[in-house]
Amino acid sequence: MKKAQRQEDRMQRGAGILLSITSLPSPHGIGTIGREAYDFVDLLAEMKQSYWQVLPLGPTGYGDSPYQSFSAFAGNPYLIDLDELVRQGLLTEEEAGSADGETGSLKISEAEAGTLEKPVDYGHLYQTRFQILRKAFVRFHTEKKEYRSFCDENREWLDDYVLYMVIKNRENGKPWYEWEEPLKQRKEKALQKIRKEEQENCEFYCFLQYEFFRAWTDLKAYANGKGIRIIGDIPLYAALDSADVWAEREEFLLDQEGRPTVVAGCPPDAFSDDGQKWGNPIYDWERMEKEGFSWWRRRMDAAGRLFDIIRLDHFIGFARYYSIPAENENGRNGKWNKGPGRKLTEAIEETLGKNRVIAEDLGVLIPAVKKLLKKTGWPGMRVLLFAFDGNPHNEHLPYNYESQNEVVYTGTHDNETVAGYFAQKTQKELEFAYRYLEIHERRQIPDALIREAYRSSADIVIISLQDLLGLSNEARMNFPSTIGKNWRFRMKKGGITRERQEFIRNLTEIYGREADR
Q: Which residue, of 6, 74, 308, 382, has the greatest Cβ tally within 10 A?
């Protein structure tokens, strides 16, 4: 019989909600670290939840994906709350109100209309938000002690990020590997010239990071005070067009021109005949290991200050990673390579401490991945949306969980909603789910799956907000391998009704998942 993992070596049993900050209600087109974020923390506490899982918080570019950020360290300026800037006297109410406007529409049912806010229009934000934030900056006193301390304490990553953003704007948004040679190659004389000519713009980007981190630190402290731990999400790879790759290209497999020789992705599978070509550069793992994974230690230290627990996306890549020749059009004809393995996971644990990592171990697992996960002691993930294929040995069915050291989800940000997924199934395909869940109608499935997650042995349950509200695929967060319709979902103020709150609160009490407060 397998020896059970000691309770002190596992995370606190509990439950939580998956909701991106961008999906919060707001009068300004996108969710922010403002009043509605605090109200959501209060709501979580009222529902006796222990966790709030968010998506990555970095600044986004083309495609708007939080998993393709301009920096692995910086915060997204779109998340700065304009009403907070009004309270600080940096904006007028009229100026903040000018950010309101049409932000697109979703085809939603009448039943869902009371739940969903207008979706995020990133094009509108790109055209208008920085103009408004710049008005706030003009009134900000950059000699403030707290501001100068922030800049000094974060100099290691902040200087590179600020220069990257300033140059990128001068170059009309071009990626860094298409910049003029002196800037692309980071010639010190050229960088000093930029610092001198663009001093005010450099201060502007420092100001944005100061406001983001000040607001986030306050929100996290408030959540922790309410007994809510925040789960953050960290992509495995850095974006090619990012300050990280520009400033530390020796950590990546690039040619002399700064272009990747191989890129990350995944091979063809049940979800994609051509596989996926993500385009991220591959790390020079050999060099990183010789350096003691110093870049990763800095990255995880920064993430550890932002979040209580970190979900490591694409954990499979730690054991083995898929590389694709950069010139290939898709994910076919790539190859598997041995990953950094235990040496990197030990560096991460030394940086963060114990019980602070969730491993996203979804996909086709080979023995090496399972062996590595077991050595770390980190909990893996189970997704109920994957469980009902009629196979009683499916690892996502709760009675097949090998230990309590698991995190169970109804679905993730990359999946269809539960209601949307099962709406497309035939009666024959639904038969196994009906029998397992002891229900008789399709409309019962979302709540039945939530109940099944809560009653499972898994230490942690995370339910997406869309599934809690029983929303269709029109509320889906992301359609992988597509651009233009993702990351836009927003909930409406008051969308979580009293009835829904009571449903979750009762499950939390019945199945012993109440937070320690």
A: 74
